[in-house]
Each structure stands twice: as C-alpha cells, then as structure tokens.
Amino acid sequence: MKAFLEKIRHSFSYPKGETPSSNSSGFREFTGWAYRKLSSIRTSIYILLGMALFYLLGTVFPQGANIDDYVQAGGRFVFAVRLFNLLDVFSGIPFLFLAFLLFLNIAICTYERFFHLLVQKMPVPRDFTPTATIPLTMDAHVAQGEIWNILRERLNFRLLSKGQEWTVMERGLSYRWLTWLYHAGIVVCFMGFLITYLFAVEDVVTLYPGKPVEITPSSPGRLEGLWRDRHPKPGFSIILDEFITEYVQHPSIDYPRDRVSRLAIALGWRDVTYTINEKSFFPKDWKSRLRILKNGLTVYEKTIEVNDPLVYEGYTFYQMAFEQRLRIGVDNNPILLEVKTGDELIVPGLTTPLRFTNLITGTLYRLDGGTEGITPFVTVKRTVKDEGGGKRTEKLGILELGGSITVDGKKITLADIEEASILSYRYDPGVGILWWTGLFVFLVITIRCFGGWYMLAYRIEESDGIAYLTLSIQTRGLIADRTKMTERLVYYITSSELKPTPLPPSS
Amino acid sequence: MDLLQDIVSRNAFLLTFEVRLFWLVAFIYGTGCFFLLLYIIFRSGHLGKASHAILWTGITLHTGLIILRTFEGGRAPFQTLYESLSWFAWSATITYLFVSRRWKDVYLPGFFVTLISVGACMYALLSRSPDVKPLSPPLQSYWFEWHVTLAFLSYAVFVVSFAVEMSCLILKPFLKRGMAQDFGLSLDGLDEFRGTAVRLVLFGFPLLTFCIFSGAAWANEAWGRYWSWDPKETWSLITWTVFAVYLHSMAIPSMRGLPASLFNILGFICMMMTFLGVNWLAKLLGIPSLHVYAV
Q1: What pLDDT digit, counting tens, does each position of A96-152 carry?
Q2: Do B223 and A73 touch (CB under 8 A)?
Q3: B15-47 burial, b if ≥16 CB within 10 A, otherwise e?
Q4: Helix, strand, or coil here: A206?
Q5: What SS3 class is residue A470?
Q6: Which of B242, B245, B246, B266 to mutate to test the interface with A (most CBs of A within 10 A)?
Q7: How far is Cα B211 from Cα B20, in angstroms, rounded to an integer?
Q8: CA distances from residue A386 to A381, A383, A390, A391, B24 in whole angstroms, order as listed
Q9: If we measure between CA atoms, which residue out of A289, A294, A297, A277 comes closest to residue A242?
C-alpha cells in the first residue's frame, strides 16, 4: 500500500528539494511543477478567489438571459458579455476550467495530506516553547511516574513520543485526520456535482384534472445528449385528480409609508390598524392529488405540496406553480372567451383590453378559527392613459363565478374557471451522493472547528533540590482551552502525592 | 363577526405596542452606541461599562419583543425582512455582549457592533412594514427554522469578528507609536485579541456551511433543484468562499497579518451583501430571485 502510494506520488512530482535529472522530459517537468503548485494552500487561495469572482459575475449578469434581451434592456457590457459568455457564466469554459482546477487542487492536497499522515507519519516535534512551569515537592524520579499517571488516567492523554528531553502526549480527535476527512468529503461532493452535471434531467409538466400525461423529458442529460436527442421515456404517466388551494384570512395593514408618520406611531400620536377586505386572502397551501399510472393501472398515489414532492422510480415531482383559466362571457353571446389569469383579453367593443388577476378559490381558514368555501372571484383591471399622458391601472371591480360587471356598457360575466397544476420534475442521480457526503463534510468540519485537540509536551527537571514540571501545550479547536487544561493538571497535582506546591505556577 | 373584529382589534393593538417597543429598543441601542462613541473620545472605562449596562437593558427588551412576535405570528420570527433585521440586530448585539465578557476593559469593538445593530433597527422601522404575515407555502418546512436560525447565528459572529478585526487594524498603528494604551489593549496582547476574530470565524464557518447545506437540501425539496445559482445562493457561496480563504490564509505565515484581516473584512461585506445587498442588486439589475419572500 505504502509503496503504491509512493509510486503514484513520484510518477507526478519530485519531492520537495529534489530537482529533475538532466534527462527528464519537459512533460515530466511540467507535471512535477503543476503537482507542486496544485498541492499548495496558496494556490487554493488564488483559485478560491477566482471562483468567488466568477460567482460575483453570475450575480451581476442575468444568468440564462438572451443576449438580444440584454441588448434591448440597455446592457452596457455587450462586448464583454459576448466574449466571456457572461449570461451563462456557470456553464462557460473558463468557470468549468477553474472548477476543475479547484477539484484537482483539493484532490492533490487531500492525497498529499494522506501521504504525509499515513506513509510518512508526521514527525512529532522535538523542540517546544514552554507555556507553564509548575514546581513540585517530590523528587524528579517519583514525579515522572505520578505525572504520567495523571495525564494518562485522569486527563486521558495518549503517548505520542518519549524523547530524551520531552515526553509528548495527545488528547482528542486528531485535527489533522479531521481536516483530511472533510477535504476528502469535498472531493466526493465534486463527484456528486459531476454526476448531476452530466446525468440530471428535468422538465415541467402541466396537468389538468382527469387528463393523464405521459412523462417524456424533452431533453437528455448532458452526457446522454452526446449520442441521443431525447431522454428515454420512463414508461409511466401521471394524472391530477384534484388541485386544492387554501387561503388564510389575513387583514390588510394600514401602516404609513412616510417616515414622519412612522415616527408619529412611535410617539403614540397614531396607531397601526387592520381591516378585512377582498385582499385579506393569504395563500396557505397549494396541493395536487396525483396518481402514477403504469399500463393504465394506478401504481402510486400521493397528495403533494410545496416542500413535499412525489418520488417515483428516481423521478421527483415538485409542486411548482399553477395555472388558472377563465371563460368569460360578453353580453349574452353564447361564445365564451378564454383567458389565463394575469393575461390581457381583448373584448370586442371595448377600446382597451381587460386584465383578470388573482383568481381566489378553494377554502378559507378564517381568523376566528372557522373555515368556509370561497365563491371563486377574480379582480378585473385595465390600463388607461391618464391626463398627463402616462399610464395607470384602473380597477373595474370584483367578478364572482356566475356573476357579472358592466364595463363601458358591456356585460362581462365569469362563466367558468379551470385550474391546472404545474409540476417540475427531475431525475438526478447525483443528489444521494451529495446529501450523504454533504452531511458528512458538515459533521466533520463541525467536529474539527468546535472539538478540542491538545498536544502536551512535558519534562521534569530538578534545580536546587526542587523538581519542576515544564509544560508546553498546543491546542486546536474552539473548546480546547490551554489555561483550563493547565489548571486541571495543577488541580490533580495538588490533590495527589505531589502536593503542596511550594510556589505558585508561573506562566 | 364581532369575534373577528375583536381579533383584528387585538392584533392591531399588539402590533402598535410591538412597533413602539421596537422603537424603544432602537433608541436604547442608539444610546449605547453614543456612550461607546463618548468612550472612544474620552477613553473612560466607566463610559464603556455604562454602555454595556445600557445594551444589556436593550437586549432584555429586545428578547421580550422577539418572544412577543413569535407568539403573535405563531412561527419563528424571521419571515419578512422587517423581522430578519430585528433578529439580526438582536443576535449581533447579544453575541457581542456574550463574547466581550472575556475581555477586560476593551469596548472598542462594541461601537461597530452597536452601529450595525442600530442601522438594522432603523432600516426595519423606517423602510419596512411590520405586518405579521402568515408563513407562505414555500417557507412551510422544517428547514426554515434551522436554516435561518443558524444563518443569523453565523452572521452575528461574523459581525463581532469584523468588529474585533477593525479594532485591531485601527489600534495597531497607534499602539506601535506608544499611543492608544487606554483602549484596554497593548501591542503584545493585540495578537491574542485578534485571535478572538479567528475563533469567531471558526465558530461561524461550520454554521454557514450548514446554512448552505440545509438551504440546498430545502431547495431540492421545494424547487426541485439543490442549486439554482439564485443571487442569494450565489452570494452565500461567495461569503463561504471568502471565509474559507480567510481560514486558509491563517495557515500561511506571510498572509496571517494584513491580508488575512482584509479577507475577514471582505467576508463581512459579502455577508452583508448576502443578507441585504442581494435584494437591492437583484432589483437594480432586474435579476429574478427565488428568495423574494425575504424582501
């Protein structure tokens, strides 16, 4: 095993201090140089800063936007955007290359650390700077045994090395191994990201009640995309039995926008008030009652909502949104006009289109604890020109299902409504790896940062007939406390045969 | 109908009381900050001690306010930006007061922390609505409390770490010239004091890691993707990266000094961007954000 590790390492690099022989090839020199560079923490810092810069670019430029839209919206960096593909930074070659370098950097650092820990066995230091000196009353020989017992039995230290001068002991989980473990975990996380990047498939499906839809992802994963243009059909359908919307009654607040009036509330000159009106509907939940069909038979069913998806054969279905369609009658015309909520509808005979917003339907949970079925209603608005030449939204009224309002002499009726559930679905084999490895990385980072690790070196000397215990304590981790450990040691010393100490301990 | 009206009136009364209490808390923090300013000018330890007493009073009232809000909303009190700002001010101040108990006669970092806390309170009171909204469907998840609580705990320790780092950076040149001895620090003890900043980041870093991890797990459950490069997600990753750089730079002797300090300050700026700036940036640049409910 050790020989194997040595061989791998040597095939890439020259150990520090060694120089390549004159007949080394240029490629070997390059790999040696690259290996040394990529095993350095300084390189990690530069790469991480580079990554941070890319992340920053990704938040400044709208990712996934069309370049033409960017130009139309008045984007000022068109040349740079085109050159560096800044509207798709995270799929661009420069970012992926840097991410690959980061992966190599972490992988090589992890390997190097493993090599040092396992193969070279990190040497225990020989010289220590004393952190405390404690006078003892026993002779040095007896004190040796006593101190050894206290450290082993009472304070749970284990021996690292016993030299001529210093005895070195350790307590707690080795921070070196913990550091290695979470870096190794991050390397595995990268594998998870890679699997997601190469194999994940996702799409959106709109379901109308009672109408089954066969699941057919419109595009393959990135890797599959190299040899086929569609992802294979998973072989099942999904059907929406019911779409449920629930609201909670939430009164509208009357709270001033200007700062002076807000100050008036602080000073007690006015109060905050609440009123109940047609806006007092706050979404409580959206649910879809779904069934999975295979060969026409139901094989699985579940009611999903946001944060509670349906998982079937590696595919996960999420409640993403919903669509509401209205059928509008104009005067007594039997032909109904169809419109989605939020869209504009051109009504024959009206000069401006109407907009139907916020269809509220389903169940209302009242503030007083009761529930009631909501008579479906929608708000009707239109955009009109004001006297100054600008545009403003005019609210025309509330239109209930079966009810009507009159707009410029036209009778507008809400004849029918239909709701569809919009689900996003995804097949991502990388999630499992990321979930468990991410949890592992988090736990190990936590133990590494919060845990306590001590390396204690001590020696006992005699001077003028008095024995002295000289200590050097190094710590890692937040709960490690050198002062407290010294105090505990002093406590055990003074409560054992070594008491009393003739002089107070000096730091 | 009468019962409903009674409930509405009671809620309005409670909210009015709560808003006034929040103004009082902001005023107390402001007074504490003013005392710390006086401490910087006159360098009297009494002023520093008085400021701490004032801040403890403020934090006690603020704790009551947060408990009241929790009962009022029937959920964790950090759904809206108004609530988040209040929680942020509270967590930063209490973290500072808790950490500063280990320092003897050092009050300078408190000025930075209270200035940030007062700023957060005033931003909430003057610009945001105090409405106690029910929990919207995307937030109805067991991840909500964990994700946000730990995020703010990490923010709080990063604020105090920033304050310590700033204090060290400001005091160092003066201490080198034999001045500013009455700020409770000596040139020899400055490095050990700066160690507090490192320890705080070491405390906050796993929390931020969990915050990102839990956010990804939550996003995977709610949106069907564990990572969407949403501006808030991306800024939290920038913050994590900068603090990772900071911790790595502490392992390189030549970077342990000023460069590391600058990374810590940069980390704080990124954290503020994650918390507040990203909403402004998304609005300014018209970038859609999945975290709009935090506004």
Answers
A1: 999 999 999 999 999 988 888 877 677 777 788 888 888 887 777 888 888 899 999
A2: no
A3: bbebbbbbbebbebbbbbbbbbeebbeebeeeb
A4: strand
A5: strand
A6: B245
A7: 32
A8: 15, 9, 6, 6, 44
A9: A289
3-state secondary structure of A291: strand
Pairing status of strand A354-365 against strand A237-249: parallel
For B214, half-sphere exposure in the C-beta direction (CA atoms, 13 angstrom radius) is: 18
Evaluated on CA atoms A340, A341, A343, A344, the torsion sign reads: positive
Token reading at A349:
């005979």
SS3 A215: coil
CA distance A341 to A490: 77
pLDDT 10s digits, A234-283: 889 999 999 999 999 988 888 888 888 899 999 989 888 888 876 788 99
Sequence-separated (6 or more) residues with CB below 8 Å from residue B217: A435, A438, B143, B226
Reading the block at residue A239, the tokens are 């059907």
| End-to-end C-alpha distance for chain B, whole angstroms | 33
Separation CA A171–CA A489 (nearest Å): 13
Tell me which residue has tokens 């000022």: A76
Quick one: what percent of chain B has pLDDT higher than 70? 95
Residue listed under structure tokens 């389903």: A362
Distance CA A246, CA B12 (A): 24
Which runs of E-coded beta strand occur in B134-206? none
Alpha carbon of B173: minimum distance to chain A alpha carbons (Å):
27
Q: Which of B283, B292, B288, B139 is nearest to B215 (CA)?
A: B139
Quote the CA–CA distance of A354 and A80 in Å, as a whole number.
42
Contact criterion met (CB < 8 Å) for B16 and A272: yes
Confidence of residue A466 (pLDDT cuts 50, 70, 90): confident
**Cα B33 from Cα B44, distance rounded (Å):** 15
- CB of A80 within 8 Å of a chain B CB? The answer is no
ipTM score of the complex?
0.89
Q: How far is CA B218 from the centre of its chain?
A: 23
- Count, residues in chain B: 295
Q: Are A430 and A314 in contact (CB under 8 A)?
A: no
The alpha-carbon gap from B53 to the nearest alpha carbon of chain A, in Å, equals 24
Q: What b-and-e string marks burial along B221-244, b requiring 16 or more CB atoms within 10 Å of the CB?
A: bbbbbbbbbbbbbbbbbbbbbbbb
Which chain B residue's Cα is nearest to A75?
Answer: B285
